[in-house]
Amino acid sequence: MGATTIGALIGGAIDSMSGDDGAADGALYGAITANVLKLVLPVVATYAIGWGVLKGLSVLGETVSERTKA
User: Fold this and answer.
1) At 20, which helix (H) or strand (E)?
2) Is this model's pTM higher than 0.85 or not?
3) Distance, first Cα to last Cα, the chain
4) Is 34 left (phi over 0), alpha (psi -120 to 50) or beta?
């Protein structure tokens, strides 16, 4: 199953637990959330990895420059 389908099923199940109305609007919100997360999570992960690499290179550069001065 795709992420959209799983998101719709989970959203519908969560929404139907309240008992106020049907599960259709919860399924719609779940499907939209799944699609947004499919786009956002890779971007956030790529940004975090890139930031970590740049921070590590900065620390490494400072360490190397301190050792060459001494």
Assistant:
1) none
2) no
3) 60
4) alpha
pLDDT digits (tens, 9 = 90+) for 11-69: 888 877 776 667 787 888 888 888 898 999 999 999 999 999 999 999 999 998 888 87
Closest CA to 25 of 35, 39, 15: 15
Other C-beta atoms closer than 10 Å to the C-beta of 24 total: 13
Joined together, the tokens standing for residue 27 give 């399924």
* DSSP symbol at 70: -
Structure tokens at 64: 């190397």
- Residue 38 tokens, joined: 């499919």
Closest by Cα among 7, 69, 70, 1 to 37: 7
Indicate the helix (H) or strand (E) that contains 14. Answer: helix 3-18
